Amino acid sequence: MSISLLEQSWDSEYYDNLDWNTACDEVGVSRKNGLPKTSKMGCRSYNLHPLFCNSARHDDPNDACATCFGLAAMTTELRGNYKFHKASLIARWDKIMNSEHWTEAMVFLIKAQATPDFKFRWHDIGDIQDIFHFKKIIKVAEMTPKFAHWIPTNEYGIVRAAVTRGIVIPENLHITLSARKKQMTPDMTVTTEVEELCIQLNKHKNVKKDIDYTRVALREAYMASEDQCPSWFQNHECQDCRICFDGTKKSIAFKKH
Length: 257
Ligand code: SF4
Description:
The protein is of the alpha/beta class. The chain has one domain (6-255). 32% of the residues lie in helices and 12% in strands. The chain is built from ten helices and six strands. It has helices spanning 3-6, 12-16, 20-27, 86-98, 102-112, 131-143, 156-164, 192-201, 219-223, 243-246; strands at 44-46, 119-122, 148-153, 173-178, 212-217, 251-255. A six-stranded parallel sheet has the order 1-2-3-4-5-6. The N and C termini lie far apart (41 Å). Bound molecules: iron/sulfur cluster. Iron/sulfur cluster binds next to helix 10.
């Protein structure tokens, strides 16, 4: 493996001299509001356009991402409030890939907009682009140890590549691998691939926080699940639940939107 792949860049001098406007511009968020806020989780997040979700199949009715809550069904057309942020969601891809100080700016903004319970959600829409992007996210988590970070992802290959190359997954970064297919019925199994991958990855000593898995389940399957996300029963809000952030369950079933 190349040394450069494992190196985590951090420019202390740049960080110490950062200001709000520069940080917002560096990561492509509004100077007025900073990082977006998720209404369900009540914490700050970062996202990008699902056009850049490399492994999702938005036009496949069986794919869990075909009913992504940020998109019109079976398309990559944004819906809800996301519609009003199309240009910035697309522009963020360039920021992620090309901004020299994206990592420092993200840390600055997360600390500046800390929620009382110190949670941060990655990608309420969008996903990891490549291992370099993933490394930057890991570095942000390392530099904000008070925060519990949650990153759900379809990008198994990127996570596997990072883990097997020895990149440390810090204790405050909970990665969940999303099952690709929706669970249609209570007796349907959709998590075999992610369960097996988690077992393999969690054997690595550099994984300081167990990697877990999630699935999207239709109503009947969700109701029969023992690992339900409780938000369905509490006004579609997380309230004081922190399962996604703390990793207190190996698996989570989300009800299909
Ligand atoms: S499992 Fe808990 S933290 Fe995760 S989405 Fe559901 S309510 Fe929120």
